[in-house]
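Example S7 (structure tokens).
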């Protein structure tokens, strides 16, 4: 994923650009759309809730497997909602499709950075650290996006206060979409409150991650490393820093060549190029998923069977 704030600002940009395709008539619909822009990411944080931690695997399934079937199933689930819930459900689906769009466009770039840094021969920074490096790259870009969009840092723009808004009623509607999408796409019957529980856990994690002093972050990161024995801290990789800069050392503003790890394609695109490309495409993606004839064939045409990593993943790919 690009990080939480990048997805949120991307969705806000889409909402401004795609007003004709995306009529968000109520606050609930807007909240659902912005929450949808976080895609399946909240599912990763349900691990905070031990009784439901087993459903965290659904996040990985949605990111990696059967992307076209997933969007088509979510659309069918929206169509089967009661009439009074359809508009909120459709808004969520539109936001979810924007998450897929930004992820599949930007992830090859982030993964190229992760591969480059973990294959550079630096002692203690081998391929096993790719996940942590991935998170570090995304967090750095997220900080830059925040400052570019608002001229604020997290000292003034708190992630836990400005994202993941949704009422219990909205979350209950989205829970239904996840239940049926998981069942129809992956043959996985999940707890009917899986998504709303995940969002609650994600909100909690954002508060736990929030720190505006480097000393605070360093102490927590040191404690984590001492407890886990790992050389790098997940807390440090995920928590935003107070950084008043609209640029990132990973934004490739110099347009240096990089290689897509999945396809081998070489590109000189910067992060901003990729963000703008996804934004240009967003109105047509939103229009497609909200059209009445959106089904399996239309979804395959839309996604090209690229998953959230921007990697080929056929709709009939086996699920473990």
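Recovered sequence:
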């Amino acid at each position: 994923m690009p990080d939480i704030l990048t997805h949120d600002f991307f969705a806000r940009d889409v909402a401004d650009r795609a007003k004709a395709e995306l009529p968000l008539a109520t606050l609930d619909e807007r909240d659902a759309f912005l929450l949808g822009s976080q895609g399946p990411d909240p599912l990763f944080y349900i691990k905070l809730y031990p009784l439901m931690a087993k459903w965290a695997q659904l996040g990985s399934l949605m990111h990696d497997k059967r992307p076209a079937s997933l969007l088509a199933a979510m659309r069918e689930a929206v169509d089967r909602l009661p009439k009074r819930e359809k508009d909120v459900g459709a808004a969520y689906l539109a936001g979810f499709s924007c998450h897929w769009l930004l992820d599949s466009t930007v992830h090859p770039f982030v993964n190229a950075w992760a591969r480059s840094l973990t294959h550079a021969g630096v002692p203690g920074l081998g391929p096993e650290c790719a996940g942590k490096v991935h998170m570090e790259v995304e967090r750095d870009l997220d900080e830059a996006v925040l400052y570019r969009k608002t001229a604020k840092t997290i000292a003034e723009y708190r992630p836990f206060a400005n994202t993941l808004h949704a009422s219990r009623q909205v979350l209950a509607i989205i829970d239904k979409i996840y239940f049926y999408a998981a069942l129809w796409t992956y043959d996985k019957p999940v707890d009917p409150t899986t998504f709303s529980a995940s969002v609650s856990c994600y909100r909690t994690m954002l508060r736990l991650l929030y720190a505006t002093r480097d000393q605070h972050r360093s102490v927590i990161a040191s404690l984590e490393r001492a407890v886990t024995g790992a050389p790098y801290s997940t807390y440090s990789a995920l928590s935003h820093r107070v950084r008043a800069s609209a640029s990132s050392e990973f934004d490739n503003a110099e347009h240096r060549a990089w290689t897509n790890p999945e396809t081998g394609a070489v590109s000189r695109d910067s992060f901003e190029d990729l963000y703008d490309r996804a934004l240009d495409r967003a109105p047509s993606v939103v229009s497609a998923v909200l059209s009445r004839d959106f089904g399996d064939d239309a979804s395959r045409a839309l996604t090209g069977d690229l998953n959230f990593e921007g990697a080929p993943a056929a709709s009939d790919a086996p699920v473990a």
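Notes on this example. The chain has one domain: 4-302.
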